[in-house]
Amino acid sequence: MIKKKIFATMMVGIVMSSLFMGCSGGKDKSVSGKAGKELTIWTKLPELEVPVLEEAAKKWGDETGNKVKVVRDDGDYKAFLQAANSSQGPDIYFGSPHNQLAAYEEAGLVTEVAEKYVKEDEYINKGVWDAVTVNGKKYAMPISIETTALYYNKDLVKEVPKTMDELLKMASAKGEGSFQFNINDPYTNLGFLLTNGGYVFAQKDGKYDINDIGINNAGSVKGLQTLQNLVVKEKFMPLDITLDIAVTNFKEGKSMFYISGPWDIQQLKDSKVNFGIAEIPSIDGKPYKALSGIQCGFVSTKSKSQDEAWECLSYLTKETQQGLYEKGKTPVFKSMMDKQEVKDNENVTAFLNASKNSEPMPNIKAMDAVWEPMKNVQRILQGEDPQKVADEILSGIKKGIELQN
Description:
- This protein is α/β, with parallel strands linked by helices.
- Helix content is about 40%, strand content about 20%.
- The strands form four sheets. Strands 1, 2, 3, 6, 13, 14 and 15 form a seven-stranded mixed β-sheet that branches. A four-stranded mixed β-sheet has the order 8-11-7-12. The protein has a two-stranded antiparallel sheet with strand order 4-5.
- A hairpin with a 2-residue loop joins strand 4 and strand 5 (about 135-140).
């Protein structure tokens, strides 16, 4: 009788344990029979690209028995800082600009990439990993590389200009509005400053010196003068032009040339405009030096499922390469670049070539103090003295850095 009671008690315990395991956290069961985890991903990918991520996330979830929710984030990086600190943020952030990592690292919100996921030999170059490195540690996984290049209308341009002088001559022949881009966007217009010898922060021994800012040196001022000429002298575009206006005019065949990044490829394809992409022409014999960025993914320190989050992110960076490439992204994996369809893709080749001469956005917190003062470029487009405004931009950057400390 005693043995029967013990056996009965054991059976009840086993049954009850099974019930509790099955209800644990309300999660789905994985293929191994264990309760799955629920992961949330925030993404900055454009709306056209989000379905690629959603499909890959669902595939990983189905294969592992976990659930993944993808949410498009329209807020700025400060919104993520706030949300993450209140435990309302995501487990994974997919598609973040690499230059925001420093601020996240300082706030203690990003975890270091485990060594097993750092496979540099699988990527197009070491530089994409350098971009996601802060204080010698890697905090994110590269997803794609992007910079700016020259879009041109093949029906209006018979030979792609190699120099900026050639471009301006061709555009002038057609008249006002023939060369347009979002000239008020610092990410775009900084390239004119960098090409002429300007710089944001000087680099010494592999580190940025925030006390040495070249935004108002002779090269930067020359670049600002070039931007002013495009609006005031050549009258190619109004000083208050926006991205939407510029891309619409290019789609409708009103402009011959347009500067932008790979994010515009899909909508231009949909518009049926006959376009090509080339490197932005050289200026005074110097290769155009655009700013470049690495879109990356990282895991929040606030995630309660660190192992699963890193496993998921590692899977997604590879699984989304083909889909994002088809939407216009420039891949970072060698396996993608080795595909014949990619080798034959003139658009991807153009952006890859442009990225070789580009300068990665400084991955330091001080860079956040640059964007607001750079909005003063519009004053230059209104005819104000470039040197005077450049000096004020420098002053604004320095004040912004002081406020960060």
